[in-house]
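Hey, I was hoping to borrow your eyes for a little while. There's a protein on my desk that I can't quite get my head around. The fold is given in discrete form, as structure tokens running alongside the sequence. I'd be grateful if you could look everything over and explain what you see. Here's the protein in full, and shout if anything looks odd to you:
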Amino acid sequence: IGYRADVVVMAVDSATPGRLSIVYYRTLKSSEFLERIENWHETCAWRHTYHAIEVQDERGKTKKRYIPFIGAPAPADIAEAAYGSRLDDKLKKTTIKRLLPCIVDGQPIPRDLVESVVRRASNRAGLSGYDWSKALTIACALYRKYKHGKENFYMSLDETRNTRDYLFGRLLAIADVMEERALSEAEKKRPTNATRYMQQYSQRPFGTWKQIHELLTPYFMRLGNNASYYKWLIAQVGDLFKPEDFTSNKPLTGEYLLGYYCQRQKMWEKKEKPASDEIDNADSNE
């Protein structure tokens, strides 16, 4: 099939047994079709960890092994991230139907769908670890796609980005990782305060950040000299804020999830450097 050949994209639905209805139909050149599919996967890509394969352990028992991948989430996974794994077939089909023009015709992702995924990803305390992690990365992918053409977002941390929502996301991640590490050293398992207050934080960031920061005090004391690194990092991010942005309690957009995800990834990618090394490196770059 040449690049000039026509391609038909058609979606059908069985409303009743033995009867199909066409819910989407589009004819376009194969070259145009391939370009739009490629564009979708490039502009809606993010790093995900929810794909699993079944493997056998040494005892012959079957277990799931999660394989990280970078790409666009499948329409069915987007529907699940927006409305939960218990969404009915009708809503799932409707959501997939709404996404087809975004993939094939290059139309913008519906704003309400993006906001629904962002809200669900912000409700970390109400989701299991797997469901939240899946919702988070899909929310990042959709928001990145939604803003494509207006703003460029990277899958790695952008330390020069000084937009309000991105910076608030970074602050939340720093508090989250710090408390996770402190709890791990104390062999305690419980949600961090950043986890508990995440939904409230997305609606009232400044006021909630003051609460979260105050609750970090015992962890600063517990970590001793290691706490210097986190204090320095919080100060570094805080210095990037415009004063009026930091004190604003305006609800955050999905951009804060990108800052949150990228900051967490960077902090967990490698072992923590001594605070003195981090500060010395920062000073030498000035």
